[in-house]
Every structure is written in structure tokens, then in C-alpha cells.
Amino acid sequence: MSEGVQIGVYGPGENGGQRVGGRRNNWHENRNEDEINVAQRFSIISQNGLVKFQKQQQNSDVDVLGFSDDHRVVEKFQITRLYDKQFWTELHEGATDRELTLKDLCEMVLEAIKRKEEKYSLQQRKDIVLLIDTNPAGIVSTLVPLIINNLGTRVENAGFRDIWLVGVTNDQLFQLTVANSPLISTE
């Protein structure tokens, strides 16, 4: 591989979690494009009808606005990553191989929520859909119900209108909140 990144979830780990490995060579991420990409992936997989996406300014309370074709429906998205600083540091140095326990995954989800929860007031969070990007490695789908069960009401108490784990395929989209609020209409 001369340029790019290879990441994979190598099935369940020995301690009830999952194994993740990654290699990189001359690959650099583009965070602005990545945030729009996450909102687009979410909208395509969830079939929510949003087709236009607009990156917001750095100091905005949302990262991306999603619109229906006729602009009658708009959604406010805040995007964050699942994997922790250690994962990204190791990957940027060239490679990472980690065994993540269920506890590790739960802590990473909570940390992702806290990063955004601490930045915005409860009033702001009520109108925001938080998308936790699990790309590039994803989460083994059988672990998600266990993560939701372990997190209990902590996810609901964060106050976001909705919280989702967003992977790259239909089988990697998971709603963490109990009730899916309808999209916001501009009418």
C-alpha cells in the first residue's frame, strides 16, 4: 500500500469485546469532509430524507446542517468520533492493534458523549442529533445491545435529541437513545 489506511475489526476479543487493527501509509484525514460524510452516511442509511449538507463555522453549536431537497426539513448534527486519542495517535504513527473490552467500548462511547455534552447547554442539546462516528473500525454489532444496556440512562440523560453510532454500512447504524424524535420541519 503506497497511500491509504487499512482498518479492521477482527471479531470478538478474548475478554468479551473486540479486536481492532489498523495500518496507515501517507494517509491524512480531512476533518471537514469527514463531518459532512458522517451526516451523509447517517442520512442515507437511516433514509431520513435529507439530501443536502452544509458544514457550519468552527464556533457553531452544530457541525453540519442537513436539509431535505425542498429545505422544509432541517436537522442539526454534532459529529464526534468514537475511538480515543490513543487509537488515533497509534494509527498516525503507522499502526495500531488493540483489544477493546466491553468496558473500554462503553467508556469510549461515554467519553464521546461527554466531549459534546460539556460544550453545549441542555437547551442547545435538545435540538441536536449527536452522531458518533465509528469509522474506520466500527463496532461488532452483537456488542451494541450490551453497550446500550451497560450505559443505562446515562445516554438519555445527556439531553441530546438523539444519539447514534454511525458506521459505514446498514448493519453499522445503531440508535443509542430510546425514542427517535421526528426531524425538525421549517414550516
Layout: helices, strands, pairs:
Elements: E1 4-12, E2 18-25, H1 31-46, E3 50-55, E4 64-68, E5 73-81, H2 85-92, E6 95-100, H3 102-117, H4 122-125, E7 128-133, H5 144-151, E8 162-166, E9 173-175, E10 184-185
Parallel strand pairs: 5-7, 7-8
Antiparallel strand pairs: 1-2, 2-6, 3-4, 4-5, 5-10, 8-9
Helix pairs in contact: 3-5
Tally of DSSP β-strands? 10
**Biggest sheet features:** 7 strands, mixed
Strand percentage lies at 25-35%
Helix content: 25-40%
Alpha carbon gyration radius = 16 Å
Task: State the secondary-structure class.
Answer: alpha+beta
Q: Which ranges are low-confidence, i.e. pLDDT below 50, for 5 or more consecutive residues?
A: 183-187
Mean pLDDT across residues: 80
Order of helices and strands: EEHEEEHEHHEHEEE
Distance between the termini: 50 Å
Backbone shape: globular
What is the overall number of helices?
5
Descriptive overview:
The chain has about 190 residues and is an alpha+beta fold. Helix content is about 30%, strand content about 30%. The chain has five helices and ten strands, in the order E-E-H-E-E-E-H-E-H-H-E-H-E-E-E. Strands 3, 4, 5, 7, 8, 9 and 10 form a seven-stranded mixed beta sheet that branches. A three-stranded antiparallel beta sheet has the order 1-2-6. A hairpin with an 8-residue loop joins strand 3 and strand 4. Helix 3 crosses helix 5 (about 145-150). The longest helix is centred in the first third of the chain and has 16 residues, at about 30-45.
